[in-house]
Amino acid sequence: MPVVRSTHLAEQNDRPRNSVAGRFTAAPVLALTAWSLMGCYTYVPVAGQAGPITGDGRVILTDAGTAAMAGPLGPNVREIDGIILRATADSVVMTVAQTTTTSRERFTSTGVTIAIARPLVQDISARTFSRKRSLTFGAAVLAILSVAFSTVTAASASGAGDGPGSIQP
Q1: Which segment, 44-48, 49-53, 77-81, is predicted with the most confidence on average?
Q2: pLDDT tens for residues 50-68?
Q3: Could you give the CA distance from residue 77 to residue 137 in angstroms, rounded to a whole number?
Q4: CA within 20 to 30 Å of 128's CA: 6, 49, 115, 157, which one?
Q5: Selection from 53, 75, 37 nearest residue 124 by Cα
Q6: Backbone phi, then psi, for 70, in 5-degree steps?
């Protein structure tokens, strides 16, 4: 019985290694690029802003506010991050997403809605997109990826891994 060899299989294995490796390195590069483009945010004080304050924000409590909010939020809470539903001259109503204590410990909240009397509030800040931070972060990610890519390319070009025990096509 004659032996039939498939030339199709041989053709698939004869392609250069770089094209196969390029496909596998593209996925992490694309994922990191997309992640870096999500953006960085910063908190901007809105104390002098006219009109109602709503949206994502942070409230910093006074020492009296920290003591007064110990019941609903826990002891030593200094900063409250979440969605500001309403901020008037009398109070701030917000849905709590995260709290930070005086010792800088962070805790995630279950989304409780609280009202804080305005004399207990030291500062209110709005969460805004920071173009400068996002571009800096994106440039850093791009630099790291280019160094990693050039290192991998240099290693494969120098023939690393083609020693006595490796399989040659």
Answers
A1: 77-81
A2: 556 778 899 999 999 999 9
A3: 30
A4: 115
A5: 53
A6: -60, -35
